[in-house]
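JOB MANIFEST
job_type = single_chain_structure
chain_count = 1
residues = 398
[input]
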Amino acid sequence: MKSSILTTICLCWRRPGSVRWYLALLLSGFWLPATAGDINASAKEFDRYFHQLMEKQGIPGAAYVIVSGDEVVAMDTHGVRLKGKRAKVDRHTIFRLASVSKTFAASMAAVLEHEQKFDWGDKVVRYVPELRFKTPSLSKQLQVQHLLSHSSGLTPNAYDNYLEDNQPLSKILPKFANIDPRCSPGKCYGYQNVLFSLIEDVIQKATGVSYERQLDNRFFTPLNMKDASLGWERFMASDNRAAPHVQTGRGWRPVKVEREYYLAGPAAGVNASISDMAQWLKAQMGYYPKVLSPEVIADITTERVETRRHMRHRIWRDYLSHAGYGLGWRLYTIGDDRIIYHGGWVAGFRAAVAYSEKLKIGIAILMNAESRVISDLTANFVVDITGNGTLSTALAGE
């Protein structure tokens, strides 16, 4: 494995930084890569179960990648882009990332915040003056960091139903004047899509550059994410895109690509291939420090709010000792490790990305079908690599 301790030391010597830089590097577990033999065995086992479950569930198309350190250990695809057609999913087939898009928005915001373009403590109304709660004083308590940590205090998924009716944010924002947070901003967790997406306004007004252009210039191009894009138009413009499928009594049926959550771009608007996700994993694990510095990574993976109910999730409940949310990432403690994770789900698509903070091993899975098998595969891979169980045991009941 290229990312040995000696290589790391040399890397630090060539790119000297502050004491905080090195502390972040140490605390992130960068020094503790898994052995090549261990991960190769886990990857081989995962590949077998991946294809077994895809066949068993009749999933039209899917792809996965496993990354260890700065190397791709395994990458494979399954099935077709559109059920009933012959075009196969390949490594450059584009899928919707759904809420995995939040990892991009929060990372982009963190890069800019560390460049002092704005501050996490800035009031949201400074950038989005039209946002009002029923009690005006509560509106002024909402900070930028609360958007990205789902700690606004509002009821979960407030006004998502309007997104699903293809209503633009400009039509949805006035409705917040009818409700108040159930707790003070920053004090409790409530998953949001509409409010999360207001980070686009913050970025635009703080930098004078659109969110889409920031993604292209700061992430997609330098990370060589050649297939990645933002928005419905760019997804539909691709000739190599996966079609969405929903479950019916007769199996999986293709449906049209809805605009809905594309209207909340930072929350659910990124498109990418599995090759792109390999690069994204490497960046998040610290192997592209010029794109995502250790300080930025440490910031977005610092817990802002506890998420206790995720301790009861049917997949994770037997393994988690703590669950929280940082900025655009779920943070799960398993044994002496933390799993940095996010999943995504929009009509006809599922996506998941996760990595071990200690081992620097990550996985991404993309599917063009709404099946919970993606959660099973992701969680059980994590359980396997962290030594808390095995894939064969964990999936025996599938």
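[summary]
The longest helix spans residues 36-57.
The CA atoms of residues 36 and 387 lie 15 Å apart.
exit_status = 0
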